[in-house]
Amino acid sequence: MDYISAPDPLKDMSELKHNRFYSLDDQGIKVPKQRSPEWFHMRKGKLSGSKLSQFLFLDTIDDFIIMFEEIWEGRKKPAFTEEQKKWVEWGCKYEDTAMENLLNNVKDIYVFEAPMVQHEDVLYLSASADGFYDQFDSVTNEVIETGIVEIKCPGKKKKASTNVTYYYVPQMYMEMAVSGRRNAIFCSWGPKTTRAWKIKWNDNVWNALCCMIDQFRNVKHGDKLKNWEKIQMCQFHLKRLCHQVVDSAVPLHTDKGWSNPPFKTI
């Protein structure tokens, strides 16, 4: 697989300093310290946005059952390999750099670092966007649009993606759903280039994701073969719609992307 699910960033909160960025600390939002008992409790039994990409890759009914047991029955997940850990560390390490480049190139937005948000009606659903944005009118300074920001710094290729990465679409939809915002900015960063696209909410995508979640919740109930047939159908429709989102995304960058300032990776 070319993706890796990394549900929890490795740092407590953003350290970015920018006149159009407000960290959790700036906003007076307190969250449990990383890997504390309170922090783990917040995430226990949650189908979080960052786990949803797995729906597009699991190949058998047993794969879905294992995922179910990992989330809700305490089954231990396989440990990341050392290589996978390095990919995750890379992605987390440069999120602030990516956010800064985004703000320096998209000058009509404010971004607020986002905490984990639980769905107001479905308590086992949650998501943690990298930020919430407010787009403002340059003349009146009034807010004309709101949305979420999702930052990805590909740790395997170490290059900015050339398109919205389709398997992150479910994650962004969950982030929009739990926050009540109906737009998303997907930003992909590499040492040389930053690219970003805007995505608008589509009910068809959300309905397909909800169908997938419903089937997943019932994966251990009823006839196994029939469950698998239903999951395959949901998976097919969700994957097709994710690719449609990629095709309809509007680039915010010019030409082949924004050239980054000289930068030395660590």
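(ticket continues) Second input and output from the same batch:
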Amino acid sequence: MGTVYLADDVTGTYVAVKMIKPELVRHEDGAISARFRREIAALRRLGRRCTAALLDADPDGDPPYLVVEYIDGLALSQAVRRDGPLRGAALEEVAVGVAAALEHIHGQGIAHRDLKPANVLLGPHGPRVIDFGIAVLAGRDTRITATGQLWGTPAVHGAGTTPRGAGH
């Protein structure tokens, strides 16, 4: 849906900029724009406690974009690929950190819907959950996927949620 870039702002601080691909915005029926607005709303609700804090956003920009703080660290998937499975205190720190993040996320009325190792950054202040692109927010229209439509990461979908053979 979008591309994420590393940039530095006017103060020299690194930030992450997510831009929606212009060709998607031009040829869409409004679903992608609605998802992007929901992602921005989710980040606004969360603050910086368990994710990369939203610094700026323009869902009507050309192209639409959002700017979040840069988290200096590997994704959990990269760390495991590089170093092997987590063990002992490192495993406990990540497990407790992700559980605390999910408690905060759910407490704000948000369902992430794409939690996977690639969406957990191992930052200097503990794990941070990122990428709320397909999240749903309580109190809003939660029908954002049509019957038979597949969003998220097929390899990590729960049993029974993925059509036979999809993504495998």
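Agent notes: Residues 144-151 have pLDDT under 50 and may be disordered. Helices lie at 22-26, 31-46, 76-83, 88-107. Closing as not reproducible unless the customer responds.
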